[in-house]
Give the backbone structure.
Amino acid sequence: MTKAVLAERWDALPTKTASIDAACGESTLAAPPLLTILIPSVAAASGRRLPARHAPALVAAFDVAFALPAVWATHLLGTHAEAVLVGCVAMLASSLISGRYRRAGVAVERGALEELPRLLQASALGTFALGLCADGLVGRPLDAPLLAAFWGLLLAALLLGHLASILAASALIARERCMVIGDPASQKRLRRHLATVSGSRLDLAAAIRVEDIGRGDDSRLTIEEIIEQHRVDRVIVLTDGDDDRSAQAARRARNAGARVSVASRVVEPLGPAAHVELVGGSVLLSTGSCELSGGQRIAKRALDLMGAGLGLALLAPALAVIGLAIKATSKGPVLFWQTRVGLHGRRFRIAKFRTMVADAEAIKDQLRERNETGGLFKIADDPRITRVGRVLRRTALDELPQLINVLRGDMSLVGPRPLVCDEDELIVGWHRDRLRLKPGMTGPWQILGSARISLQDMVALDQQYVANQSLWLDVRILLRTVAFVVARRGL
């Protein structure tokens, strides 16, 4: 393929903007209202945006800017200013050593919940440094309440600074121009995944097969020329096996100054918890066992019981009102019981508020030709839904009776999606590993993807959850689910 033809092909590509990091890209916390006004105004006044490589410096600058009020407040509480500054320097050093600034990207933004462990580590190290140096600089050890106040102020400052840096990156830093290298089928799969998420920070500027990349001895464009001519910031290499050409493309793209991401079906089951290990001359992507320990299983069940019991107690008045509204506006029972497939393939009856007419299941076959997803049965304007049912579905309140299933042990608060029997029959082979966990009231399929995702994509999300399950992940999903419900999104 000649350079002219190849360039024409790239220019004809539609620009697609999306976020690669679907699991961790959005925050459940909002930035301060004043910043939502000031930062976009500054960007509009400047008339230009900074390159993506300036994102780490931007995050560090916001850390410093928001830490200064914490320093001043702690000084007013009775601490020597130099001692507090030492603590802040230790905080910045912790963020630098942990790689937080190096990972600060524009396309792959990490929300406040995802960054919270590193922010806790940075603020704790800063507080520890303050306690160590206080005796030498102040002449006396600091009281525990003062150290706790500094830790709390510093953590709050880092959280606010992180949220502000995300907003600032969106307004001040240009989107990353991305080039995808891979076969058409892999490119199509990536585009489909990107289309299911929000938080757009990527511009898909070019797509090419690895065999169309020149080596400098023919008329084809080399990867260095592609990056230069199309101002590419990030190169995503899609590979499903041992492909030397893909490895060479990734190496040359990195040497040319671009960020490099590698996507492979082989490593998808490992999920985001995987880490890189160097063994001899081989680079390994490794992860631990996906099984919860005995203590973790007990803690997860305790979380389920506490959350379901507290939820039923607090929501009892609302549940009663919803039940009366359903009974008064349509014929049929208040609750809808349906057989679903749960842990290890065991079938159980799930409870939901009835949102459809009483004979909804009987007329389902008549509507199958209007189904909008592959495998799952979803219709945008389902004629079987009642007026009250539409409100309940839009706010996800129809799911609340499943708290009964959680108390009974059939379900968990967080887990794979519980499928009806005919949908479960479509899941074959190793994809049935999703049944190793109890199904959940919520899960990654609710907060990471559109309500119209296909059965294949939903199973892929469940597989990633199974491979990376942890109590902290459950807490993050629960918090983000609450935010989605409040925002009346996607459930």
